[in-house]
Amino acid sequence: MLLTLLTLTLAAQTAGLPPPAANPPRSMPSPSKLPPANPLAPPDGSDERAVLATVDRLLAGINARDAAAIGATLRAEGGATVVTEAGNGPATVRYLAWPELLARFQPGPETFDERISSPAVEIDGDVAMVWAPYVFRLNGTVHHCGTNHVSLVREGGAWKIASLSWNQRTTGCPA
Question: Is the pTM of the predicted complex or chain greater than 0.70?
Answer without folding.
Answer: yes
